[in-house]
Amino acid sequence: MSVDDPLALLRNLCSQPHEQEWLEFKVSYFDHMEIGRYVSALANAAMLSNETHGYLVFGVENETHNIVGTEVRLKSKKVGNEPFEHWLARALDPRLQLEFIECNDGGRYISIIKIDPAYQRPVSFKQVQYIRVGSVTKPLHEHWERARTLWAATSRLSFEQGIARGHVAGETIQSDFACRELFGLLDRPVRSRGEIIDGLLTEQLIVDNRQGRFDVTNLFALLAANNLDSFPLLRDKAPRVVIYDGTSRLVGKGIDVTGRLGYAAAFQKLLKFVMGHVPKREVMDMGVRETQYVYPEIAVRELLANALIHQDFSISGSGPTIEVFDDRMQITNLGKPIVSIDRFIDTPSRSRNQRLARMMRDLKLCEERGSGIDRALGAIEALSLPPPLFAIVEESTTATLFAEKTFAAMQKNDRLRACYQHACLRHQANDPMSNGSLRMRLGLHTSQSSQVSRLIAEALEAGLIATLEDEQPNRLARYVPWWAKPADM
């Protein structure tokens, strides 16, 4: 984001108690090679200090921070016949976002270079990487401990940390975002605007732009915006719900709604809206009439949360889509999964959007790390529903829930998938699958054990499961997923 109030920025920088490693003051001395080394060092120091920018300021005394003005006119400087700004950009690797700022403070001319850190690797100037050690600029290779820390810090910038809107006043943050609702979900009630701002800064949802205002991160806007349409990069990331009449997209849409609220503010409303259009029936339980949905709410909840959390924001296109048919529900998000779909159950949760995932858990909108899919599948198995289908379709990931279907009506692939998923869940519970456990999962009677035995044999032949032990008696046979077979067997 460009600087909107250069004088406010200048005063903020001058108010620093001492010269920071990400901040350098000069008066009028200009040497293009020295400036290049400074920019490399300040960019790397900003990364190490977890600062959003480094700054090189001309026109301020280094010791006193007094504003005295400068004769340096950065935008008119040249190296040979090439503008200094272009020469500097070429000499840096990787290329940086640099902003050359000029302002006048009561007749005193000031020049500022605002430097974005690089997040792929440390910044080099003329193929040498530099770092600040106190107020001194040194080659990075002379300080291996800082080099190691800097390399560890690179590549940490994510879409969530990007800026959705810059230079926002505190009162606007309170009016345009569901701040109190957000902190309520975090069990941290706030009483004043000051507490709201302090809390958002602590959570790194907003950034002090050193101009008396704040930059709003993509993560904050995604979670708490009152209207995602007002953010160009995010307006297509709101969830869309489509309710079809029948079992085909060709029949026509009964309802087609796209949300506008941020995920934290909208999630419970979204879940309630979706469940309100899921087929259901009335059942009697201990003399009490209850509504039983075709799909367990916990399963829908976790798959909705997964779609929001695991979408790939780098791909342009619509946000998560929930399609409800008479016989199934399909939830789609852009982006291929970063773990194999056949390891969704056992692999610890990984997300390309780690901060969004953490916030969704902190807000209690999804299960703890790695347990959401397990709970969803456990609820599906408890109702003897067909197994969900996870698939990659071009650049998207889909999860499909199916309405009740008898074992006889299931296709072979459905039965095999049910067997594999059940084996995974039992393995996670440290209680290997048996004929009896699979029979109960499928809702079959004891007399149908032979059908289950045939299914297990087909799953073994397909390589989906393995025997827990060699030469185990049929009645005591136990099975594990193919990837869990003991190494010595």
Tell me the distance between the termini: 59 Å
Number of strands: 23
What is the rounded Rg?
A: 29 Å
Main β-sheet description: 6 strands, mixed
Q: Which sequence of strands runs across the widest sheet?
A: 15-14-18-19-21-20
Provide the CATH architecture of the largest domain. Answer: 2-Layer Sandwich
Helix content: 25-40%
Q: Please indicate the count of domains.
A: 4
Shape annotation: elongated
Helix segment count?
A: 15
Which residues form runs of ≥5 with pLDDT under 50? Answer: none
Please identify the structural class as seen in this structure: alpha+beta
Using the coordinates shown, work out and report the CATH topology of the largest domain.
Heat Shock Protein 90
Mean pLDDT: 90
Query: What share of residues are in beta strands?
Result: 15-25%
CATH C-level category of the largest domain? Alpha Beta
Could you characterize the architecture of this molecule?
A hairpin with a 2-residue loop joins strand 3 and strand 4. This protein is an alpha+beta fold. 33% of the residues lie in helices and 22% in strands. The mean pLDDT is 90. A six-stranded mixed beta sheet has the order 15-14-18-19-21-20, with helices on one face. Helix 10 runs antiparallel to helix 12, helix 13 packs across helix 15 and helix 14 crosses helix 15.
